[in-house]
User: Which sequence fits this backbone?
């Protein structure tokens, strides 16, 4: 168990290093001179030259790369051009809002999706099953930015029930959560209903029933736990979509998270913040995947024995 | 499987299952082929509309008819024509705009899948066929890239590339080649063990000939499924990038861009945002179910991929 987690941890470090390298490579393609971008168009040639030296842009690429990796280790991505102060500080300031949104969307998807999936599996081929499975097919295709705007149109502008932008009260959380959670919810519904149908026809469920166990015990002890495995897998695979989706949803609802900071910084060519925000989001994604792996070993002891990777 | 990430989260993984399943021809239930018809028809409809539509109802991005601005759907313009889907803030016809947007989606979707598919497939089959160091490098690169949520990587790349259709295609292809490479690789691994490849090797065929003539055709079935699924996802990703202002240029009426401009008119003109979004959902559902059904038909074991 410990060895397995250590191996996954080593892998996570490798992947974060790769992510930081990708950021470094992409940033080499920034049009124009970063020094010029930082100083603005009014800068003199001497100022630009001095800044280039200060940023190390006059040094060989490999040296720049090694110092970039070194500074990334200490989370130093430079100072924000626009907001002042270390870029990473601004990213961390916005982190709680993003985590809150991601967490509430996941909770929404699981809490609503689970019962719906169970209901659909209750009578396979029935009217409810048909309705739920069709709705979940469409739900998976929903572009979060469009759903978000439609939710604003309906609940904020027309019905005037909920606020459309900002983050001061809990009501502000409702619409972004739904917009971000709907595609995820649809996937959960599909997984739970198809997973339950598979599991309920297994021999161990038949044995449990023939032992005379209560149906609720068969369901919760024998069926659900086995059905959870694919759900956990997909929750893990969906985290990336969720983080990417958060960037877009935060923009739609003016939610003060890392995603909106990232888009604002891109528009203002504030590259230190762009680098910091991307690196942190990638790291969060890797850490969450690591957690999913750990949960998986707990749910399915077979993984420990075969060792996964 | 060399990919630790997937292998750990999917023990007894679906990728291995795919490898084993590939060579076997399975009986094809008739209902699967029939179930393919509806999504295939809708997808074809989208393709035809995207190609023909803009020619029938041309869209002029610089045209301004202030008197006709913000006309609701099914109402008449001043010149007496019916604006079936309404007009936007500059009096431009929404129907024309949505049709042209379909063409942008089709273009970006097809070109990206072609580019990512070609690069990914070639890397993937070479990776699976040669194994060893080359395989390691390619698959580690794939792993690292998956450390980025693909839309985040697209946003990062698009932010330094500037707005153009070509740049969107390149950006999305960079974020999408991995899936093709992985599937092609696992199919190539399976092909390598098969008699026809070993016979070709024994006859002294060159690696290039074996790869292109024997291994590549073997990978086509699963790749066709992946290409269909990715086509829908690329269209969605393009709309997302354009919505954020990182995709197509302002003169090009991408659905994402139109949805974004409609945000300022939610109180007065709901249709500007609503209609292109409906079109987008329609296309993504059609293409997505086509992919699902193709997979059920061609290769039931790919389900979890």
Assistant:
């Amino acid at each position: 168990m410990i060895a397995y987690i250590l191996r996954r941890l080593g892998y996570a470090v490798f992947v974060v290093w790769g992510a930081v390298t990708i950021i470094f490579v992409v940033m080499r393609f920034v049009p124009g001179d970063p020094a010029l971008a930082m100083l603005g168009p009014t800068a003199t040639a001497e100022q630009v030259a001095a800044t280039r030296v200060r940023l190390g842009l006059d040094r060989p690429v490999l040296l720049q790369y090694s110092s970039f990796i070194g500074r990334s280790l200490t989370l130093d991505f430079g100072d924000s051009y626009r907001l002042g102060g270390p870029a990473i500080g601004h990213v961390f300031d916005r982190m709680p809002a993003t985590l809150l949104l991601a967490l509430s969307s996941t909770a929404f998807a699981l809490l609503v999706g689970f019962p719906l999936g169970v209901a659909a599996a209750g009578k396979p081929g029935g009217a409810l099953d048909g309705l739920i499975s069709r709705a979940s097919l469409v739900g998976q295709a929903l572009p979060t930015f469009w759903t978000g705007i439609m939710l604003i149109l309906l609940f904020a502008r027309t019905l005037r029930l909920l606020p459309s932008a900002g983050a001061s009260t809990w009501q502000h959380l409702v619409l972004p959560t739904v917009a971000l959670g709907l595609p995820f919810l649809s996937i959960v519904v599909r997984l739970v209903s198809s997973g339950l149908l598979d599991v309920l026809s297994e021999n161990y469920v038949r044995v449990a029933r023939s032992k005379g166990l209560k149906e609720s015990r068969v369901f919760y002890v024998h069926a659900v736990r086995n059905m959870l495995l694919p759900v956990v897998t997909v929750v893990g695979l969906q985290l990336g979509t969720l983080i990417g989706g958060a960037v877009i949803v935060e923009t739609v609802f003016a939610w003060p998270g890392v995603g909106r900071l990232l888009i604002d910084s891109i528009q203002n060519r504030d590259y230190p913040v762009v680098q910091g925000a991307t690196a942190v989001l990638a790291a969060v994604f890797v850490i969450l995947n690591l957690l999913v792996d750990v949960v998986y070993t707990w749910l399915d002891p077979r993984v420990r024995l075969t060792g996964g990777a | 499987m060399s990919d630790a990430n997937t292998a750990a989260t999917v023990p007894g993984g679906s990728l291995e299952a795919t490898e084993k399943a590939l060579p076997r021809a399975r009986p094809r239930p008739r209902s699967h082929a029939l179930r393919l018809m509806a999504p295939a028809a809708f997808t074809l409809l989208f393709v035809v509309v995207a190609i023909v539509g803009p020619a029938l109802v041309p869209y002029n991005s610089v045209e301004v008819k202030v008197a006709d601005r913000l006309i609701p759907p099914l109402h008449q313009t001043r010149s007496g024509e019916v604006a079936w889907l309404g007009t936007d803030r500059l009096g431009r016809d929404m129907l024309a705009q949505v049709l042209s947007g379909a063409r942008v989606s089709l273009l970006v979707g097809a070109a990206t899948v072609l580019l990512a598919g070609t690069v990914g497939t070639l890397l993937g089959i070479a990776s699976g066929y040669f194994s060893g160091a080359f395989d390691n490098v390619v698959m580690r690169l794939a792993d690292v890239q998956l450390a980025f949520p693909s839309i985040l990587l697209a946003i990062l790349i698009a932010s330094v590339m500037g707005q153009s259709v070509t740049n969107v295609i390149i950006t999305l292809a960079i974020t999408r080649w991995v899936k093709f490479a992985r599937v092609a690789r696992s199919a190539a691994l399976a092909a390598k063990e098969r008699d026809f490849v070993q016979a070709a090797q024994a006859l002294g065929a060159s690696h290039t000939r074996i790869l292109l003539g024997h291994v590549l055709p073997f990978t086509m079935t699963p790749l066709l499924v992946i290409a269909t699924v990715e086509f829908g996802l690329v269209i969605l990703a393009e709309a997302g990038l354009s919505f954020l202002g990182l995709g197509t240029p302002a003169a090009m009426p991408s659905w994402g861009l139109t949805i974004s401009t409609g945000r300022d008119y939610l109180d007065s003109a709901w249709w500007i945002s609503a209609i292109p979004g409906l079109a987008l959902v329609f296309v993504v559902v059609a293409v997505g179910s086509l992919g699902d059904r193709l997979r059920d038909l061609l290769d039931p074991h790919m389900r979890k991929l």
Notes: Residues 105 and 181 of chain A are 5 Å apart (CA to CA).
